[in-house]
Amino acid sequence: MQVDVRVVCATNRSLVEMVKEGRFREDLFFRLDVVTIYIPPLRERRDEIADLMESFLQRYSVRYGRPAPQFSPELEKAFERYPFPGNVRELENLVKRVVILESEESVLAELEESTGVRDTKGAGLMELIEQIEETAGELPLKEVGRRVALEAERDAIQRVLAQTHWNRKQAAKSLHVSYKTLLQKIRECGLEPDA
Questions:
Q1: Domain with CATH 1.10.8.60 in the chain
Q2: Other beta carbons within 10 Å of 162
Q3: Three-state SS for 168?
Q4: In what helix (H) or strand (E) does residue 25 lie, and over which residues does it extend?
Q5: Is the pLDDT of residue 177 over 80?
Q6: CB-CB neighbours of 35 under 10 Å
Q7: Of 38, 131, 177, 188, which is most buried, counting CB atoms within 10 Å of its CB?
Q8: What does each C-alpha distance from 133 to 71, 73, 123, 137 come to in angstroms?
Q9: Class of the 43-115 domain?
């Protein structure tokens, strides 16, 4: 029997690495590997988030016969910070939920909780600034600058770790520091993953 078929495959794993590790058949890989198109994850294409949000909003407003809501600036900022481990499909589902429920509250709460923004956003830095204001003049300016810089660094590291779900290699890459430096900073700052 003669057939003429084309096979289109998608994966979020490195087949080259899997072949090297013996977890994917080499002959099958070479049969499939005719044309390869690499699509980076959504977290590496953040400039596309706003357009995708609008597209999904229009699609699901029509599908469910609901008015297209206007996204709040808070939700837009939460989407910009969120790492989207579920990629475009996760963004689509979140926008769909906003349309169906005609409310963004549950989505906003979920995004803020997962990135740790609501409870910790600059809390340590604000406390330090209040302490410095209360004791104005008692600390040398150089010491004030050092403490503020350390607290700002701690806050930035904590936020990136929350966004990457404590994937330290990914966090180090995002922060443009070595993995070893990040581990040292985590120890110095006394940071620990949320239980």
A1: 43-115
A2: 21
A3: helix
A4: none
A5: yes
A6: 6
A7: 177
A8: 37, 31, 15, 9
A9: mainly alpha
Helix (H, G, I), strand (E, B) or coil at 160: helix
DSSP for 35-90, written as a single string: S------GGG-GGGHHHHHHHHHHHHHHHTT---PPPPHHHHHHHHH---TTHHHH
Write out the two tokens for 190: 């006394």
What whole-number percentage of the chain has pLDDT above 70? Answer: 85
Cβ(107)–Cβ(77) under 8 Å? Answer: no
Sequence-distant (6+) residues with CB within 8 A of 189 are 153, 154, 157, 158
pLDDT tens, position by position, 78-120: 898 888 888 899 999 999 999 988 888 888 888 877 765 444 4
